[in-house]
Amino acid sequence: MRRLILASGLSLLFACGGGGESGDGAPADAPSLTGDMFRLSFGPLSVAPGEEGTKCIWIRLSNPTEIKVHQLRNQLSSSSHHLIVYKDDMDTTEQTTPVDCQPFTGALNTSGMIAPIMITQKADDQLNLPAKVAYTLKPNQMVKIEMHYLNAGDAPIDATATVDFYAADPATIEHEANILFIGSPDIDIAPNATQTLHQFFTVPSYLDLSASKIFAITGHTHKLGTDVQVRVAPGPMGPMTDVYSPAPFLWSEPETTTHAPPFSIPAGGGLDFECTHVNTTNQRVEFGESATDEMCFFWAYYYPSQGSKVCLHTQQHGGAQGLNLCCPGDGLCSLVEGMF
Question: Are residues 108 and 231 in the same domain?
């Protein structure tokens, strides 16, 4: 069977889940796309049978002036798992031919000058930010587009993608949006076993999210994942408030749960999360970015922005209470960079 799986080790995005599709391929229940549209394209990239990798391009948007992007739409060439779109304020030279790159390095850039703004796990994804919320892009904004791919078929296939940016009237925008990518690397699943990883991420003291508003959450696993749940709480003992529990959870097209009004994480509190994996293979499966590894993460869209963050809880480090950290911004971020 000819099949292309786009898979990324780290990822963070808002996709309109559920519903059917309209005539142009967009979800039937997706809000109308409005405003001036600016388009970027990736590929075509020829992928040989059995080939897996991550490739990136760097390309400037054609906006002559600063724009406030209130909606985005990503369209991928086949059954997709991940495409990551970055706002890149560090790189200055275009590279329009896809080249090898490390996954999610933009989000882990300690300068804070490269940040993901949309991460797609569907063939047709649409991001609609709340009223008065947008991403600000500079004139002729440099954009990095990252694709992680695996051709599981028996014939070559072309990987392509388009990314459409829709600009809102700047007078209608008051807040800057950004992304949190939260989870755990503590995955170790025995052959032919079922495992549920259940942990509590406490927001580190150097990051105050109590005034931030989370408006959407999407769970993320690879193909062995069968369930992702997230709850917000003032501490590990609760009380817990459910914020993400799709039934069923589909790893290939995970539901995005939107919150209107948005919710906040209490000061000193955090997010309780769990992922269930069913290992149907005869091999031990551990954490990793490959499609044959597994992950337990979720991405959360929030405002006002305190930057794009990759946040971890791990009980493999930090003693009995484990370790909580967010990058960039923590002295242990080099540990996170070494994981991916």
Answer: no
